[in-house]
Design a protein that fits this description.
Blueprint (H helix, E strand, L loop, with lengths): L18 E5 L3 H8 L4 E5 L2 H6 L5 H11 L5 E4 L5 H12 L5 E6 L9 H9 L4 E6 L2 H10 L6 E5 L1 H6 L5 H11 L5 E5 L6 H9 L3 E5 H4 L9 H19 L4
Parallel strand pairs: 1-2, 1-8, 2-3, 3-4, 4-5, 5-6, 6-7, 7-8
Helix pairs in contact: 6-8
């Protein structure tokens, strides 16, 4: 008798509690995703903006906010010293009610930005503290945030996974740490595959930021695996024929 193994349960995007935020700096792509009701917000960073060919930071950001005025959008400071970091953050915060200001967890010398985070949060500025990878960093940020001021804490689970470590336990612990701050939301940042959306949901993350290339795979969620297998076989055959391969 041949043993059979059931297919994995069919996932359903509509049943997820985690919110999907699109991560990118391509305005056309952002507008397309804005029309998708599953996309609840947007994030950017200087690296993505540089890859997209952005040269005028403020003009790009204001242009985005003109057409996406009603969903959270994060824009990051790019200064490396506390005074300029805080100045940039306060300016960025004036661009719109839906703006979150991204502050890196340290400067490039590895010095914590805790004092900047504390001053800005207690001034009522919505923050997205970014590039975290340890629970000590999560605890430090949680201790600096003003309890009633909205904030995001971005833990780079994908980069943690790139080191060979499973981020699931760490992310669940981060959820527990932030439970004392009802206005703070944990972000599963830098996902590497669409399955990470379901990982983030399983541990109770509030948000997952997903790049446009991974979001393009949303239509495949729940696809029948036998059908997907056949599609793959057809792809191989079609490409071999198009290449004119002979033996």
């Amino acid at each position: 008798m041949i043993d059979t193994v059931a297919q994995p349960a069919k996932p359903n995007l509509a049943t997820l509690s985690v919110k999907l935020f699109a991560d990118g700096a391509d305005l056309a792509g952002m507008l397309s995703l804005y029309r998708n009701p599953f996309i609840k917000g947007f994030t950017t960073n200087p690296t993505l903006m540089r890859k997209a060919g952005i040269t005028d930071y403020a003009a790009f950001a204001r242009g985005v906010l003109d057409v996406i005025p009603d969903r959270p959008i994060s824009f990051e400071v790019f200064a490396d010293d506390e005074a300029e970091m805080e100045r940039q953050a306060r300016e960025i915060a004036t661009w719109g009610e839906n703006v979150y200001v991204k502050i890196p967890i340290t400067n490039t010398a590895g010095e914590p930005t805790s004092s900047v985070v504390k001053r800005l949060s207690h001034a009522g500025i919505k923050l997205n503290v970014t590039a975290l990878m340890t629970l000590d960093q999560v605890r430090r940020v949680a201790g600096e945030l003003a309890p009633g001021v909205p904030a995001c804490v971005s833990v780079f689970a994908g980069r943690i996974a790139d080191t060979g470590r499973d981020p699931m336990g760490l992310m669940k612990s981060a959820v527990d740490i932030l439970a004392a701050l009802p206005a703070a939301e944990l972000i599963w940042a830098s996902p590497r595959e669409l399955l990470n959306v379901f990982h983030a949901d399983a541990v109770g993350c509030h948000i997952i930021t997903v790049t446009h290339d991974i979001l393009a795979k949303l239509d495949g969620i729940g696809k029948d695996l036998d059908e997907y297998s056949l599609d793959t076989v057809k792809m191989f055959h079609r490409d071999a024929s198009a290449a004119g391969f002979t033996l």
